[in-house]
Write a structure and sequence with these properties.
Elements (H helix, E strand, L loop, with lengths): L3 E5 L4 H12 L3 E6 L2 H4 L5 E4 L5 H12 L4 E6 L14 H29 L2 E6 L12 H20 L5 E6 L4 E2 L2 H5 L12 E2 H10 L5 E2 L3 H10 L4 H11 L2
Parallel strand pairs: 1-2, 1-4, 2-3, 4-5, 5-6, 6-9, 7-8
Length: about 240
Amino acid sequence: MRRVAVVTGASAGLGAEFARQLRQRGYALLLVARRADRLAAIDGEHWVADLSVESEVERLAAHLESRDDIALLVNNAGFGTQGRFAETALDAQMAMHRLHVLATVRLTRAVLPAMLRRGSGAVINVSSMAGFARSANNVSYCATKAWMNAFSEGLWLELQGTGVTVQALCPGFTYTEFHDVMGVDRAKHPRWMWLEAGFVVGESLRNLGRLYVVPDWKYQLFAALWTKLPAWLRLWAQLRRGR
């Protein structure tokens, strides 16, 4: 039976890179994104949808439930915003929670039963280093990525011994359109902090089966040290950083 990989947010950035590398590994592709024109440039089966809209998530989920050939789901679709929670547009905040949280829940639930029946399969949830730390002006993004880590961890525990696995991919700053769309000036962060999309995706696929994948040693060190600090010290450090 052929192996099909479903990639959401596949029209650019890490999603497009996942599509490229998975094709090289012999997967057939079901690529999901909002922009049909971008998808048209990538080989594979195309599914145009805005996954921040419940009805469109449900339509895709129903299709995935009807199939028995999904070997991998990459929950990659996402976006970020900047600004204080009480001052930024509510619609964008709500859309982020629907996309990062509810779409991830629904699509994962759609593919897992068939994977469990076969005894094989994987889900990659594209999280972020932001899932380990809270930040002012980035409240919803950090919160939804922290949820994604917790969701992945719980699933990983449930799936032990089934042949099915889940991964939380937690990259740091990565060269994609993500920060351009947010209007982030890359020059504010030193070059050594930035990762190439190809490297991030390669590390994810190379370590499929591991719960947390944090590409690059400097981010691994940060995650290891930061998560061991007491909560009061982490908050104090963030407050000092924001001054």
